[in-house]
Specification:
The structure is a homodimer of 203-residue chains. Chain A is mostly helical. The first copy, chain A, contains 10 helices and no strands. In chain A, helix 4 packs parallel to helix 8 and helix 8 crosses helix 9. The N and C termini of chain A lie far apart (61 Å). Chain B binds a DNA duplex (30 and 30 nucleotides) through helix 3. Chains A, B: InterPro entries: Homeodomain-like_sf (IPR009057), HTH-type_TetR-like_transc_reg (IPR050109), HTH_TetR (IPR001647), Tet_transcr_reg_TetR-rel_C_sf (IPR036271).
DNA sequence: TGTTATGTACACCGCCCTGTGTGCTTACAG
DNA sequence: CTGTAAGCACACAGGGCGGTGTACATAACA
C-alpha cells in the first residue's frame, strides 16, 4: 500500500481540494459562465486557497478543460445505458432534459472561449462527436436505414434545442423531440426488423 | 433646415464616427467575440478616439445591443423577400449560409453576455422570434398544415446548425437543410389547398 | 520522531478592462 | 469670418483579472 501515491489523479492524502474546486467550477461556470467567473470567486466558493488551486491546475484553461471532462459519464451513459427502454425510446430519451440544465456546457465553452485550439474546445468537439456516435449506435440498434445520418441529425436537434433554449429563455426540447420522432420514423423502414419496437405514436 | 439636428441617428455634420464604430464592431465582435474585444482595440479599428465612442454610446452594453440590431435587415429580408423562389424554396434558402458566417451573432451574444436581462439578449430574443415568425409566414404561404409549428421547427434547425457548426468547426447547415426538407414535405399536405400556389414546382 | 506532500492565509504583481477629464482641432452653417 | 458642435489625443482612475511568493499549518507515513 505504500505505492498508492502518484495515482493518475495526483492527490494522495489531502482533504479533497481538487474535488471541491471542480465541484465549484461545475456550479459557477454554469450559473455565471466561464469568463465571468474569476478564480478568486471560484476559490472562495470551493473553500480552497487560490494557492492550492494553482497547485492542482496549471491555469484556468486547464481547469476549464478538466471541468468539461467531468460531464461525459453523467449525461451520456445516463441516457444510453438504460436497458428498460427500447432503442427508439432511448433515442427520444436524449431529449428529456431536466430543467436544471440551462445550456449544454460544451456549446457555452466553445462560444465563450472562442478559440478552437483551446483544450476545452477540443474536449467539447470530442464530446459532441461521441454523443453523435452513441446516437448512431442506438439508431443502428433501432434498425435505422442510415444510422450515422440519423445520429448526426438527432445530435443537431439536441444542440439546436440547447441553443434555442438559451437564447429564448424557454424550453425548446419538446419541439426538438417532436422533430426527432418524425426523423426516427422516417429513418426506420416500416418493415424494420428491429427487436423491440411495439407501439408507434406518430402524429 | 436648421432643425435637421437631433435626427434619430443623432449625428448631424460629423465625419461618421458612429458608423465606423458600428462597422468595426461588426467585424471584431464576430472575429473575436464580444468579451474578448476591448474598447481600446475597437476604437483603434474604427479610427475613432475612445472619447468619441463613449459620446455615441453610453457604454459597451449599449454598443453591443446596437450592433445586434444592425443585422435584422441584411439576413432576414435577404432571404425571405426573394420573389424568384417558391415558398418552399425560400424556406430551404434559409439554410444556405455563406461560409463567411462563423456563428449566428445572436446566439453568441446570448451566451457570452450570459444575462437574459441584458438589452442585447432581449434583442437576440426578439430577432429569433422574428425569424421564426417569418418562417411561419412562409410556411403558411407554402401551404403547411401547421405553419407556426413548422416555422418553430425550422428555426430550431437553423440554430442547431449554427451551434453545431461552431462547436465542431464543420459546416452543419447541409445536414440541417436535409432535415428541413423532410419536415417541410411532411408538413405540407400532398393535396396542398392553399391560396397562392400557382407555380407548379419544377419537381 | 521527523520528513514530506498537501493545504492555508494573505499580500502582492502586472495586465487589461471599462470608463472619464481636459484641452485642442476641424468642419460646417449662418 | 465666426460660432458651435463633432471629433481627437492623451493621460489616468478604479477595478477585476490571472497568477505568484512567502510563511505557516496539518496529515500521513517511515
Amino acid at each position: 500500500m505504500t505505492e498508492l501515491e502518484k495515482g493518475p489523479k495526483g492527490r494522495r492524502r489531502g482533504r479533497g481540494a481538487r474535488e471541491r474546486i471542480l465541484s465549484a467550477s461545475q456550479q459557477l461556470f454554469r450559473e455565471q459562465g466561464i469568463n465571468r467567473t474569476g478564480m478568486d470567486q471560484l476559490c472562495a466558493a470551493a473553500e480552497v486557497s487560490k494557492r492550492t488551486a494553482y497547485q492542482h491546475f496549471t491555469g484556468k484553461d486547464e481547469l476549464v478543460a478538466e471541468y468539461l471532462r467531468r460531464f461525459d459519464p453523467s449525461v451520456l451513459s445516463g441516457v444510453f445505458d438504460r436497458t428498460d427502454l427500447t432503442p427508439r425510446e432511448r433515442l427520444l430519451a436524449a431529449f428529456d432534459i431536466p430543467p436544471t440544465t440551462p445550456l449544454c456546457p460544451y456549446i457555452a465553452a466553445a462560444v465563450e472561449l472562442h478559440d478552437p485550439q483551446h483544450p476545452a474546445s477540443q474536449c467539447a468537439r470530442d464530446y459532441k462527436k461521441a454523443v453523435a456516435a452513441r446516437l448512431a449506435d442506438t439508431a443502428r440498434e433501432a434498425g435505422a436505414a442510415d444510422p450515422e445520418q440519423l445520429g448526426e441529425q438527432l445530435a443537431l436537434l439536441i444542440d439546436g434545442a440547447a441553443a434555442r433554449t438559451r437564447v429564448l429563455n424557454a424550453d425548446a426540447f419538446p419541439a426538438a423531440a417532436a422533430i426527432a420522432a418524425v426523423l426516427i420514423d422516417n429513418a426506420i423502414p416500416a418493415t424494420a426488423g428491429d427487436d423491440r419496437r411495439r407501439e408507434e405514436v406518430s402524429s
